[in-house]
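Tutorial handout. Part one gives the primary structure; part two gives the three-dimensional structure as tokens.
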Amino acid sequence: MSILIIHGSRFGQSTKIARAIQTTLESAGLETEFAELGKATDPTGHEGVVLVTSVRYGYFDKNAYRMIARHREFLDSVPTLLVTVSLTARKPEKRDPAVHTYTRKFLAKSGWTPTHTEVVAGALEYPRYNLFDRKAIQLIMRISKGPLDPTLSIEYTDWDQVEAAASGFAKQLA
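Part two.
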């Protein structure tokens, strides 16, 4: 069984999460193909699709909307897993897809209903950000009572959650 794993990442955390999902799926005996969101990747011919994409300033990558619009009928016909990577999910109560505002808006706007949806915390890496991104993220962190120290790098990703989501998806495919 071949699973397409599509990742969209700004600073690399979504790609890292997608690779962890790939490892878990391959350990379950599934074949995978790894593709970057925005590249010409046709999901047809796969028996399942995983989309791992980040939220940036409350918005999903436009390429995610394009991919869904282009392949919506196919995506609705196979098992799918959407993994939203968001710094707001650093708080456990924000990891529920039913209450995660950005994921709910994305799904409503795209009209897509994945088989399974997961919201995973990303990483805060102030030293990697340019001045604009650092100031914007500090403003968001100030509002949400997060860390402001521009020298901090904190990985909030719950790797057990990522593995559990991938394992659950693999079981669904079996």
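Part three, for discussion. The longest helix spans residues 13-27. The CA atoms of residues 88 and 144 lie 8 Å apart.
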